[in-house]
Design goal:
alpha/beta; about 25% strand
Length: about 575
């Protein structure tokens, strides 16, 4: 018996190990071998744009690792390039990280907080003979660096004395030289097979005002130098980054070692998450904003985190999407439909199913008494009975969807047409008896009769109907603006054209005015979301809505052909 139990336990242990991603297995090994006794991670964005869905993977991965191992998680801005950085981006990123539930507590840091220490470490490199001031231009440095088949040439300033380098570097800091006139380079190996190790630039001159330090500095550290020092200063144990930094890892380790930090972080690379047919590149989004194609970085057609939040996506849906995408070393693409599947799955049992008619057509029930109304009990969500019900007023004149009536229907059309009977959802059976048209031949009104013995919840009327349509009472419905979104990218043409520009879908946004909604929706607040029966999931726009005048964004439609891959 003891043998059987131990085998079962071993099986469970194996199962648990196999279910972990490769980063978790590396962390387990580090902890077991005593390399680290805790786990401390960070998310280090550059504040030069809004975060997108790909960044959500990094945020949730880094935070999730800290949470799993009972460690700490930092939010730190890599703000070493004031050319493109703005306080607006700092604020939006901070809000995004909080909204996703990645709790950095009081650990909000900036690379610029460490500029003094970075300067001192650069001085240390010079004193150790590991850095020198160069007079070469950026173009000359690139030419001297060589390529994958040709070793680099040594910089003429490489053999300057320590004393001269210290003087020149201080003069750079004091503003004696023009932008681009001199740089500080690390002294490593111009013949290295890894081009990143061929004396990379450590500091450059840039007379730019910084969002955090103002005009204190006219020299700024390069990312490859600053980033490993930031991790070391904060006590980061596992620096998880995307695969393009794999070739930079030897340089990361070199800077930490040569700057004499006693507890070096470990860099681990993972694959980015690519999403098919969406726009994530900051320069593309910036151009779309500047050209007025979208109404900002949070336009609901984008997949920035701010845009997804504005459109009505939830943190839970994004977390599920990231989990389904997984963590690996191999680049892969996820279908946009998988993200849409996740939001449908999250909302279907959480949101009330409300009546909203997007393309209204008047329905008059001729045999319903004029002036009479009644309250009907409508379930809020048939799949979630615990959500209860609400009262909805029913009267003689209603609004129905235009597509729910056809004068001459095709085969297997089961909605309303002359002589056909359907159920009004939660109400009665009605039979179409006639219609009215305008001068152009457009149907403007449909007439019907109702059977009072067919009220929902009452006795079985003894007959069935094949069609059920939704409605709102004309007397108390209110008119609202509803926005329908499609993919911003023309999926048939692909994302990019031959000249590198975006292939945009001209029908990515449809704005519907005078949609007729049930009265309970009038008091909906920003970010409130609902299912509009048979039309999809919608939420209240946070920017353009006013009190009593909500504007609704369609989050996602109800139907999808997407199927989760089998485990």
């Amino acid at each position: 018996m003891e043998k059987e139990i131990s085998r079962a336990e071993a099986s469970e242990e194996t199962k648990e190990v196999n279910s972990k991603n490769f980063i978790e297995r590396e962390i387990d090994r580090d902890l077991a071998e005593g390399v680290y006794d805790t786990v401390h991670t960070r998310f280090p964005p550059e504040p030069n744009g809004y975060l997108h869905i790909g960044h959500a993977k990094s945020i949730l991965l880094n935070y999730g690792l800290a949470e799993t191992y009972g460690g700490k998680f930092n939010l730190r801005f890599d703000d070493t390039n004031p050319t493109k950085e703005k306080t607006e981006f700092v604020q939006s990123i901070t809000e995004d990280v909080k909204w996703l539930g990645a709790d950095f507590e009081d650990r909000l840091f900036f690379a610029s907080n460490y500029f003094d220490e970075m300067y001192e470490k650069a001085v240390l490199l010079i004193k150790k003979g590991k850095a020198y001031v160069s007079d070469l231009t950026a173009e000359e440095i690139r030419a001297y660096r060589g390529d994958f088949t040709t070793p680099g040439k040594e910089d003429p300033g490489r053999e300057r004395s320590v004393e001269e380098n210290l003087r020149l570097f201080e003069e750079m800091k004091d503003g004696k030289y023009a932008d681009g006139e001199k740089v500080l380079r690390a002294k490593i190996d111009m013949a290295s097979g890894n081009i990143n190790m061929r004396d990379p630039v450590v500091y450059r001159i840039a007379r730019l005002s910084h969002h955090n330090t103002g005009d204190k500095w006219c020299i700024y550290p390069m990312y490859d130098f600053a980033h490993p020092l930031e991790d070391a200063i904060e006590g980061i144990t596992h620096s998880c980054c995307t695969l393009e930094f794999e070739d930079h890892r030897p340089l990361y380790d070199w800077f930490v070692h040569e700057c004499e930090y006693p507890h070096p972080p470990r860099q681990i690379e993972f694959a980015k998450m690519y999403l098919t047919n969406v726009v994530t590149g900051k320069r593309y989004i910036k151009k779309l904003v500047e050209d007025g194609v979208v109404d900002g970085w949070d336009d609901p057609r984008l997949v920035t985190i701010a845009a997804l939040r504005r459109r009505g996506y939830t943190p839970e849906a994004i977390k599920k999407f990231v989990q389904l995408a997984g963590v690996s070393k191999a680049d892969s693409s996820c279908d946009l439909e998988m993200l849409e599947y996740c939001i449908r799955d999250d909302l279907k049992l959480k949101r009330a199913r409300m009546m909203a008619v997007l393309h209204p057509l008047k329905l008059i029930i001729d045999n319903y008494p004029e002036g009479q109304t009644e309250e009907l009990e409508i379930p809020n969500n048939l799949e979630a009975p615990e959500m209860g019900s609400r009262k909805l007023t029913f009267g003689r004149e209603l609004w129905i969807e235009q597509e729910d009536f056809m004068e001459v229907p095709p085969h297997k059309y089961f909605r309303l047409f002359p002589g056909n009977e359907v159920r009004l959802m939660g109400a009665y059976f009605v039979t179409c008896t006639g219609l009215e048209k305008d001068a152009e031949g457009n149907v403007t009104c449909v007439h019907a009769t109702y059977d009072p013995l067919t009220k929902s919840g009452g006795p079985d009327p003894g007959r069935k109907v094949k069609g059920t349509i939704h409605w709102v009472n004309a007397a108390d419905a209110f008119a609202a603006t509803v926005r329908l979104y499609e993919n911003l990218v023309d999926e048939e043409k692909g994302k990019l054209s031959e000249d590198g520009s975006l292939n945009l879908n001209p029908n990515s946004l449809t704005v519907l005015h005078n949609c007729m909604l049930e009265p309970a929706l009038k008091d909906a607040k920003a970010y409130d979301s609902f299912q509009f029966v048979r039309n999809g999931y919608f939420n209240v726009d946070c920017r353009d809505s006013k009190e009593g005048e909500p504007v609704f964004n369609r989050i996602v439609g109800l139907k999808s052909s997407f199927k989760l891959p089998k485990a």
